[in-house]
Known about the structure:
This protein is an all-alpha fold. It folds into 2 domains: 2-276, no CATH class; 283-321, no CATH class. The protein has 13 helices and 2 strands; from the N terminus they run ααααααβαααααβαα. It has a two-stranded antiparallel sheet. Helix 5 (72-83) runs parallel beside helix 12, helix 7 packs parallel to helix 10 and helix 11 packs antiparallel against helix 12. The longest helix is centred in the last third of the chain and has 39 residues, at 240-278. The chain starts with a helix and ends in a 10-residue tail after the last helix. The relative contact order is 0.14.
Amino acid sequence: MIVAYGVANLLQSVAAARTTVHHTFDPGLLLRLAGHRTYLVGLACQVAGFVLAFLSRRDLPLFLVQASVAAGLGVTALLGVILLKWRLPAAEVALLVLLFAGITALVLAARPAPSKALGTEGMIALLVALAVIAVLGFFAVRLHGAPGSVALGSLAGLAFSAAAVAARPLASASSWDAFLSHPLLYLLVAHSVVGQLLLGLAMQRGSTTAAVAAMDAAGAVPAAIVGLLLLNDKIWPGREWLAGIGFLVTLAAVVGLTRYAEPQHQHAVAQETSRAVVNAPLPLIPRPTAAGCEVAGAGSGVGDALPQAASTGLRRPTTRS
Length: 321
């Protein structure tokens, strides 16, 4: 799950950065992102991570699973070093060590146990949360820059956190019929779609660091609290301190890693943009006539200009979407 989410983070942030910025709470962004092969591969990785996370929530407490989801950013950083030749500062090495230590502490503290059922009141609360997140997202999308990234990323984290809460008892369904007919399944899907849309909007606001950090914090903390209070999440007796320290260390390491991931990514995108500009074809230069008028002037069409360009050895202009 951690590996799948790490790959998804890397690919989806690249695709979001290459898509026209949306300033409205428009689901059409997901359709535009779906036009990028990079985004589709990242989405496939995210779906794989989602399925593995869903299966793990059947027995493992949410504070462990959600912290592990956030730890996918550590895999993103390592992949950037291996595949994109990112530099690995000493501070980032220390953060990766802290991340590993935090997850290890959570594994040692977590006590596997099946989830309690979420009653009607809990499902109503998830439905209300979905409506509130969507309304807040409608207004938060008007923010730009880092504030917009933080606001939208936080809302995305809350949506994913609510999806995790729905998934914990749903994973214990006794049969496929019970699984497909359970209202929690549809609340899970709705929260996941809203969270995915909000995350795409957050990444377009210019600060992937702020978006991912806000999403990870908002996605891990509420689910951990709800799991411990309502869903029968367990900690081995005497290891409560280990769970608390591991959770805080993991989140701190994740937030710290986002600080190093964004400048590397932006630098790579800037280099690619520069190469595209340098390699762009020359514009069509109209050939003057004897009377000093341009061949592609007001009296002639573009179709007339192209044969003239071919006869003089000029390259035809390319059309950019």
